Amino acid sequence: MNRRVLIAGTALVVPLVAILLVGLGRDPHVVRSPLIGRAAPSFSLRPLGGGPPISLESLKGRAVALNFWATWCVPCVQEHEVLAGAARTWGAKAQFLGVVYEDQEDTALDYLRRKGSAYPSLFDEGGKAAIAYGVFGVPETFFISPEGRIVEKFVGPLTPSELSANLGKALEATP
Amino acid sequence: MIPVLGRSLVLLAVLVSVVGAMVGFAAGIRPSPAGRLWTRRFAYAFAAAMLLANAVMVYALLARDFSVSYVAQVGSRQVPDWVAVVSLWSSLEGSILFWGAILGVYVAAATRSLGDRHPEHMPYAVGVWLACGAFFSFLLAGPAHPFATMLQVPADGPGPNPLLQNHVLMIVHPPCLYLGFVGMTIPFGLASAALLAGQLGHDFLRTLRSWLLAPWVFLTMAIVLGGWWAYEVLGWGGYWAWDPVENASFLPWLTATAALHSALLVERKGVLKGWTVTLVQASFLLTILGTFMTRSGVFNSVHSFTQSAIGPTLLAFLATALLFSVALLATRIDRLSPDGQLEGARSRDGMFLLNNLVLVLFTFTVLLGTVFPLVVEALRGVQMSVGRPYFDRMSVPLGVALLLLMGVGPALPWGRATTAQLKNALLPPLAGAAVFSGIGLALGARNAWTLTTLAFGGYTAQVTLRELWLPLRQRLYHGGESLGKALVLTQRHGRRRIGGYVVHAGFVLIVIAIAVSSTMGVDKEVLLHAGESTELGPYRLTFVRADQVDEAHRTSLVARIEISRDGRAVGMLSPRMNHYHTQREPIGTPAVRTGFGHDLYLSIMNVDPATQTLGLHALLNPMVGWIWIATAIMAFGGVLALLPAHRRAEPARAPSQAPAAMALPQ
User: Fold this and answer.
1) Do A19 and A134 meet the contact criterion of CB atoms below 8 Å apart?
2) Which of B243, B251, B317, B584 is the mutation pick for testing A, counting most A CBs within 10 A?
3) What's this model's pTM, rounded to 2 decimal places?
């Protein structure tokens, strides 16, 4: 038995395996948004199909679920029902808002007419809001506390349980 | 039907590999001709089961049999047949199946070629190979089963990752990488056998070295082919980004390179046996670590662990293999007693040691940079990444040091050298250093590291060419032979040595090409309207128009750019932006015009056919083409060294320590 080899080998192997074990549950694709915990960038955008612009400031006091979506995005179609359902149940406490991302206004309007919508979707001319929120792709959903802070960001299609968990966090977040 | 057949073959592979591994170890502990014979039979049976399982999958992919889960996942009626075949290794489960096929081929080839030559070692070696085979066939039977039956058979599938359909290199690169990665199992088994049997004789060492060199050649080619693919497909203008996937292939290459060199010291001096065996073990373990790190798709980092059960299983295998190796080394390393001793630093021996030190340091540097983000996240919960600056800053001095050692080492004699010998050996190559750095200066190189690389490269080039030329000159001038005959005879009687120096020559070229291309390129980003042009170096690039091309699986926007050099039209380059119907983000394909001096590399940033505007990233990359040429040279050298040598011409420098190795086949 060569003790030096044993000690050196163990000292190398055990931490390595331990680190890999810890890293096992990690999803390398998830990049945490630096905006979490910060004030949500303000916007004032015109809803699809006309009407006065809606600004973030005007929604103070209610939690906001801000969902960036597009008609060409398959996962957005998947989560459409989830969002519409949740908007009806949470409607009293939280405001749901859609933001159309890199899409034509009439295509989006036509899509909403066919699918039905439970909350306003805004048209982001020139993608300024998407840039301010650092949107990488769609769908991405930001959960904003009643005071206007971003509490959580969710990438990908939401399930009902994930949606309620995040929205609950946004509502509980008090300064 | 097909899923059942595939699953049966996988289960057969599990069975024969488990039983075969046990028979192998038993035959190692209690040697008997029958035990060895049965060990070999199980090795062939494992290979047959794996190859047949792969054949079944290829058939299913070609027949578009969507009742097979893997075909439903990656198959498509839209893609041509060659893409259907390539799909075998395009995704997680298929790539593990392909791994099994390559392992089968290696195990069968090694078993066949070694026959009954090393009776004390071979049963153990086959036992270790089949134990690895058992693990991979278990993966295929459970966590990563490609032959599951689809309950609802889809009419069509999505096809493989579009990035993999983009370039023909995708046919060559993954098999090459697998031949490198999986091939490390063979030397691992042989090294473990040396430890288990408690001896590493001259004859067995040669076997070990050859079976290490073969996967090393493939790994070398695979690493560069991967870089070439990235360069031709990804469109950012470079070929290496220190991505974990790239590091995963580089790590075992470093330790295997170190092992190939320390094995020479074992052969010449009978020292460093335990160290060499450790390096061989490490090379294999790093391939498994690499497989684990890259989500086991090896080159496919699209899969994350949360989606598959393969991560924990691979980690369990890695941990087992690591502990097995440490335990084996700790208990048996002292049995591999040295037969000689090392000379001091002023000898080739000393340079070999230094080379090993630098290579191992390099390995740790890359390993640390690769796993550091995991460490930080585990300890502090902060996400971070170790970027190029760390890797570049650390690897450049190490690479340059290796380059110099490649010149100094072979210039020195074996054993202790006198001061006069040292001067004679080390001073003349300074001419080469002066010539190379002079050329660099004249062509505008100003970066200190580039100039150092050129100087060391020139030094090593001169030593290498002299070592290649000397035996030839001997035959030409003293033997009076014709050039052709001298070439043939020289390489025939010293293939390994010559092969080694050819590899060195290729490596010098690669390092210089990397240094020059990464410090002396120029690039620009411009916005062009149709008809406008821009200048880059000697080129004038005129944006003619942008077209939309519709295909079954993608829509591409193609920019037509007319190229003229010094006023003369030289052709058209058409970089494109592809929108695959199954992908969210568009994928660009650059257009490259490769030349001996430099490449002209055009990549689209954005393009709009409606307004006929183009955002263009244009690069002049000097010497990149030489990286591919140099790799071919290295591969040629490796193959030359692998060809069976003419025994008569190779004087045995150490007596065979394993008389039993001479035993006749039963």
Assistant:
1) no
2) B584
3) 0.83
